[in-house]
TrEMBL record:
Coiled coil: none annotated. It comes from the Bacteria. Residues 5-218 form the NAD-dependent epimerase/dehydratase domain. This is SDR family NAD(P)-dependent oxidoreductase.
Length: 319
């Protein structure tokens, strides 16, 4: 693999993928709709000579195929706000696959665990039953069908599943609201119960693992799990973040009742409520397949990853 394109490059996952690819000496195209955000990404990457910025609309076949010309792999890490999933998720997936096929690039889809529904076996392998009980879970499962139908029609693709992730510059992470507030030395909210152990993956680890999978021809046509560094309770997350930030401001746990109330006025909060089951019945991924076929998984300890994330938030806030 010599050249790659990252869709959604200015987002948290996209940014780390770009950084990882450049670190491996690969020509990388950062694709997105916002020139300002992509220019900030270029600054973040030290304006590496191997980085090219491409402004475009992922719903446009021409925009994608032109930007992806000469690319070996296309990484789809674009995020869509929850309230827009019904209208945009499947058309975007279809557009991405058409664009990649036109450019002759293989496709890597960054996905989540929503299609599985509630946990039926733990740790969950890639063969875990898919019984989505939420609207968003059913949409993600349908998206998987779109991707794999395109793969069978001659557009090589693989799907990588991640638990919720965390790291610097990740506003759509469930931990962001907590870590950002604590870094700014404010009282904070934590989504879910503080005593329930959940799994999170540190974004730089996820990017490394995704690129490793994508470099192997025999990985395509398949689904891959990238787990985090075990599980951790919310109380431990808060302890580490407070120690790094140097204060003990209070943290309040918020659950279904709060989201139900907020959802009366905020469509995003209404959508989040549907997924709160993942904070109540944690879903832990198995990395056995990756370990057997690829090698050891990157797994930054939570103590280190959370501290690094808090420090980054503090630096951005001038602390």
């Amino acid at each position: 693999m010599k050249r790659a394109i990252v869709l959604g490059a200015a987002g948290g996952m996209g940014r780390e993928l770009v950084k990882e690819l450049l670190g491996r000496g690969m020509e990388t195209v950062a694709f997105g709709r916002s020139r300002d955000k992509l220019e900030k990404l270029a600054d973040y990457c030290g304006n590496d000579r191997l980085l090219k910025v491409a402004i475009g609309d992922a719903m446009s076949l021409n925009d994608i195929s032109e930007a992806a010309e000469g690319a070996d792999v296309l990484y789809h890490s674009m995020g869509i706000p929850y309230p827009e999933w019904s209208d945009k998720l499947l058309p975007l997936a279809a557009s991405v696959m058409r664009g990649a096929k036109a450019a002759g690039a293989k496709t890597v889809i960054i996905d989540n665990i929503y299609p599985y529904g509630k946990v039926e076996a733990s740790p969950a392998t890639e063969q875990h039953p898919k019984h989505p009980h939420t609207r968003k879970g059913r949409l993600r499962l349908e998206m998987e069908r779109v991707i794999m139908d395109a793969h069978r029609a001659g557009a090589p693709a693989l799907i990588v599943r991640l638990p919720d992730f965390y790291g610097a510059g990740v506003p759509n992470s469930i931990l962001h609201v907590t870590l950002d507030a604590l870094a700014k030395r404010k009282s904070a909210m934590f989504v879910g119960r503080l005593d329930v152990p959940c799994e999170y993956v540190y974004l730089p680890d996820a990017a490394k693992a995704v690129v490793e999978v994508s470099a192997r021809d025999d990985a395509y046509g398949d689904t891959w799990h990238i787990p985090g560094a075990g599980t951790i309770t919310g109380a431990e997350v808060v302890r580490i973040a407070q120690e790094e930030a140097g204060h003990g401001k209070p943290v309040r746990s918020i659950g279904r009742k709060t989201f139900a109330m907020l959802g009366l006025f905020n469509p995003f909060m209404r959508e989040v409520k549907e997924m709160l089951y993942l904070t109540e019945e944690p879903f832990v991924l198995s990395g056995a397949k990756y370990l057997e076929r690829i090698g050891p998984l990157p797994a930054t300890p939570y103590e280190q990853g959370i501290r690094e994330t808090v420090r980054a938030h503090m630096a951005d806030s001038g602390y």
